[in-house]
Recover the amino acids of this structure.
């Protein structure tokens, strides 16, 4: 044997050490920019977050004033979206977790959900345009935008709900049935309450994503500038992500504060939802009775 | 083929006049999709207000038989089911049966104590609330009475609103018993209820059963032959899905008629 | 009986909700087809397959933007797959518990960052870097897009791959270690091969994510719909299918050829993304799917 055992072992150790270093490097390269991004945006954007910025309308071609209609618009869009996607998605999740038999229809439903999850957001925008804006004649409106976002967010809510319900031990179901409970009673009294944190987390993460999406609302709800707040669901609206896009690419001589300020508001909104979801999740895990 | 005692079943000695028949199992055959733990043509009688014990080696079908009585097998993949289970003269295997009502009349305690993720009080009330009972006074009384009957009241009466998971294993199992008793069933099925419990808790549960048999029909799958011998008023030996032998308690363990029964009771296989 | 009636109602309601997923997919597909197929009538096929995308002159050659998508996606994949898999391996196999608890939320945050925000940063930070470093006429290039997109796709890969690695039974690792393998060897010879299916799924989903991304890509690739003719094109502006739709749909007359062609591009996106995602998901078809995976 050419190399001795200790030499080979040393080489193995070096390979391992180098390999681990590379892996660590990869992880750092992946995650460090996140810190940078948050730091950069907050550093330059927080200063711009004056009450005026948050509570007044844009002026001077969006170059000064505030972004109130955009903030409100995003809130409205996500609110109406949640009204639609939460009941529908949770119901579908309940079906898959508890009622669906193991047959072809169920498999087709799962495939459909995978499909929906894989559709690019801009294609949802196209669909929303053809279906809600044109076919149902809603025009560019909060309604059309919310509904488009709702279909886009559906797979997330369904999947999280199903997983949350499935994680509840089956023994509870058996006991409930043995005490004379029907399927729905078991779902309502045990599965849903126990699965609620997971379901909530899923809804919040879905909302978080929808709040930041631009493409689905581009042709279905968003307007560059509106002098007044929307008064009905059939009105178009400004929205945060779209506003960020406009002020960073569409308007010449845009002051950086406006850009970073808008980005900061969006970032804070997203981070806030992330934090809430994480808190719900960890508190639920700590209080689990099983 | 197993030596089959044909229906109608004749006990070694006639049943005392005070004892009537609660459940009659007639030619019950049940096969799961995966083929395990099936039942083959089982026929036996369960007298009321007594403890009937179903014992035998693991995988023999005792649990399957137990679950057939309260139709819990509906939850699993059953490939074939034939025969009858007569409860007070009405066939519970009939598809037209109100299964919900059946399960309130026939309660079950499982091998591992499965307490629901709620307080002690809520656990006991659960079955009643399912049944639509909302009267606070009635619920409160039921909680007290059933915890008493399960010999648990003294230990938990001051912590009824704590999570049920804060109780010890033995207490949890008695809570499961109380939960069943709250529905005032007629039959209580117990599937190895003391298998995870310490000797003291086991003793308490067995004592409770002796007290309860005055009011309820009890079918018990014991976790050992000794427990079977201790508690049985009537005993059935189940092997490989078939009923080998059935007799009043003492008889079966002291003078088993079938060699297989004798082997099992003697501990030659298990 | 009220209870039985309520039970039945619930059964019907949840079933309808479940089936609605199928309905939505069919409706989406139908409407895309309905609005996109006319393009095949209004624009002769040879034109569609041409090499110039110049809507102002009614020239709708799809090749430049299809190739643009492919180029950027390819570049993104080259970046995201090694980094994503390596990060997943790091989190699942190497990092101590405390580091894991920190990294995982970070990845989740990254997954939730709006792409328009990342595009914004790409414009103000990344592109000028490219411009300076590589001495290019503009920082808005395919490479910039690939870089940004690659990084955006990493969380998708990490969450799914990490799941897959986690799912490998302890016994595999313990067995290898007991036989004298080092942790490094165990990872590459035992754990990773065992998680092969899930990791492949992760990669496919990551590619799908990069392919379907719109805003970030639109903002940093310069939006010039020219055919990438050589690898040097990597450092020139380019345009993807997604960006094309997003950029041009707003100014299009409903019913015009341009309008229909954009829908046709949408159909292409729909079909290709679906193919990628379905292949990825069927490699390891797990009934349990994590929502974050679908999210990012």
């Amino acid at each position: 044997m050419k190399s001795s055992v200790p030499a080979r072992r040393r080489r193995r150790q070096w390979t391992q050490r180098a390999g681990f270093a590379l892996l660590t490097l990869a992880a750092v390269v992946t995650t460090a920019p996140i810190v940078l991004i948050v730091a950069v945006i907050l550093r330059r954007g927080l200063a711009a977050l004056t009450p005026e910025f948050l509570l007044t309308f844009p002026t001077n071609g969006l170059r000064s004033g505030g972004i109130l209609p955009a903030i409100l618009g995003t809130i409205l869009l996500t609110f109406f979206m949640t009204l639609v996607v939460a009941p529908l998605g949770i119901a579908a999740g309940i079906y898959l977790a508890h009622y669906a038999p193991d047959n072809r229809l169920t498999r087709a439903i799962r495939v459909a959900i995978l499909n929906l999850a894989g559709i690019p957001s801009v294609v949802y925008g196209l669909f929303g345009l053809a279906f809600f804006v044109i076919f149902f004649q809603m025009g560019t409106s909060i309604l059309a935008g919310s509904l488009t976002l709702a279909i886009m967010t559906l797979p997330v809510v369904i999947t999280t709900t199903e997983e949350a319900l499935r994680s509840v031990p089956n023994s509870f179901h058996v006991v409930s049935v043995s005490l004379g409970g029907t399927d729905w009673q078991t779902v309502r009294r045990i599965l849903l309450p126990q699965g609620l944190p997971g379901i909530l987390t899923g809804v919040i993460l879905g909302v978080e994503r929808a709040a930041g999406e631009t493409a689905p609302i581009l042709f279905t709800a968003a307007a560059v500038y509106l002098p007044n707040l929307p008064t009905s669901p059939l009105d178009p609206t400004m929205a945060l992500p779209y506003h960020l896009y406009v002020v960073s690419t569409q308007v010449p001589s845009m002051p950086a504060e406006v850009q970073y300020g808008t980005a900061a508001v969006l970032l804070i909104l997203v981070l806030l939802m992330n934090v809430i979801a994480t808190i719900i999740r960890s508190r639920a895990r700590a209080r689990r009775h099983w | 083929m197993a030596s089959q005692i044909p229906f109608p079943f004749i006990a070694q000695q006639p049943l005392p006049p005070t004892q009537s028949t609660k459940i009659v199992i007639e030619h019950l055959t049940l096969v799961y999709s995966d083929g395990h733990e099936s039942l083959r043509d089982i026929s036996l009688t369960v007298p009321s207000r007594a403890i009937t014990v179903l014992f035998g080696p693991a995988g023999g079908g005792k649990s399957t038989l137990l679950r057939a009585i309260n139709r819990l097998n509906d939850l699993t993949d059953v490939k074939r089911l034939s025969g009858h289970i007569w409860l007070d003269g009405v066939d519970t295997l009939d598809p037209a049966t109100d299964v919900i009502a059946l399960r309130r009349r026939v309660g079950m305690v499982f091998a591992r104590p499965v307490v629901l993720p709620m307080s002690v009080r809520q656990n006991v009330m659960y079955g009643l609330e399912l049944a639509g009972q909302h009267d606070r006074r009635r619920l409160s009384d039921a909680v007290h009475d059933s915890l008493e009957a399960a010999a648990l009241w003294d230990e938990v009466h001051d912590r009824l609103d704590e999570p049920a998971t804060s109780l010890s294993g033995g207490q949890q199992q008695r809570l499961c018993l109380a939960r069943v008793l709250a529905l005032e069933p007629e039959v209580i099925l117990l599937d190895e209820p003391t298998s995870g419990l310490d000797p003291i808790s086991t003793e308490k549960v067995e004592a409770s059963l002796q007290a309860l048999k005055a009011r309820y029909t009890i079918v018990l799958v014991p976790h050992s032959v000794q427990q079977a011998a201790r508690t049985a008023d009537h005993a059935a030996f189940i092997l490989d899905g078939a009923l080998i032998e059935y007799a009043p308690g003492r008889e079966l363990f002291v003078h088993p008629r079938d060699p297989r029964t004798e082997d099992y009771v003697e501990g030659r296989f298990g | 009986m009220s209870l039985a009636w309520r039970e039945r109602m619930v059964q019907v309601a949840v079933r309808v909700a479940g089936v609605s997923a199928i309905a939505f997919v069919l409706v989406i597909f139908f409407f895309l087809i309905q609005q996109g197929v006319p393009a095949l009538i209004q624009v002769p096929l040879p034109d569609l397959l041409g090499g110039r995308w110049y809507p102002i002159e009614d020239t709708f050659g799809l090749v430049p933007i299809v190739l643009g998508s492919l180029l950027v996606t390819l570049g993104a994949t080259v970046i995201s797959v090694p980094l994503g898999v390596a990060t997943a391996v790091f989190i699942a196999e190497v990092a101590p518990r405390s580091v894991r608890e920190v990294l995982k939320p970070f990845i989740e945050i990254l997954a939730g960052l709006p792409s328009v925000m990342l595009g914004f940063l790409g414009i103000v930070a990344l592109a000028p870097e490219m411009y300076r470093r590589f001495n290019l006429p503009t920082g808005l290039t395919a490479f910039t897009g690939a870089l940004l997109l690659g990084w955006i796709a990493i969380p998708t890969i990490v969450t799914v791959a990490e799941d897959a690695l986690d799912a490998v039974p302890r016994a595999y690792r313990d067995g290898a270690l007991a036989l004298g393998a080092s942790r490094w060897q165990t990872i590459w010879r035992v754990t990773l091969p065992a998680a092969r299916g899930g990791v492949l799924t992760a990669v496919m989903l990551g590619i799908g994510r990069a392919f379907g991304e719109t805003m970030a890509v639109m903002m940093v690739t310069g939006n010039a719909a020219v055919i990438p003719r050589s690898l040097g094109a990597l450092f020139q502006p380019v345009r993807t299918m997604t960006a094309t739709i997003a950029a041009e749909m707003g100014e299009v007359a409903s019913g015009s050829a341009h309008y229909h062609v954009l829908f046709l591009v949408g159909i292409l996106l729909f079909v290709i993304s679906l193919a990628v995602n379905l292949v990825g998901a069927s490699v390891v078809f797990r009934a349990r799917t994590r929502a974050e995976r679908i999210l990012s």
Residues 1-15 of chain B have pLDDT under 50 and may be disordered.
